[in-house]
Amino acid sequence: MAAAAKLKAEAEAKRLAAAAKQAEEETKAKAEQAAIERAKNRLKKS
């Protein structure tokens, strides 16, 4: 029974790690897109 609980906990840890990585990638992509928009706006004002 302990082995099953360990496997379940490991699977949950992997799932959470994957979700955290995806969230980090999405945040990075949003920041990059915001930087692009700011650069476009600066060019329009020039």
Provide a brief overview of the structure.
The protein is an all-alpha fold.
Task: Please characterize this protein's 3D structure.
The chain has 46 residues and is mainly α. The protein has one domain. Helices cover 96% and strands 0% of the residues. It is built from one helix and no strands. The radius of gyration is 20 Å and the shape is rod-shaped. The mean pLDDT is 97. Residues 22-40 have a biased composition (Basic and acidic residues). Residues 15-46 are annotated as: Disordered.
The largest pleated sheet is described as: none
How many discrete structural domains? Answer: 1
Q: Which parts are unreliable, with pLDDT below 50 for 5 consecutive residues or more?
A: none
Nearest-angstrom radius of gyration?
20 Å
Helix residue percentage:
over 70%
Mean pLDDT: 97
Q: Categorize the overall geometry.
A: rod-shaped
Write a concise keyword list for the protein shown above:
46 residues, mainly alpha, 1 helix
Task: Describe the SSE topology.
Blueprint: H1 2-45
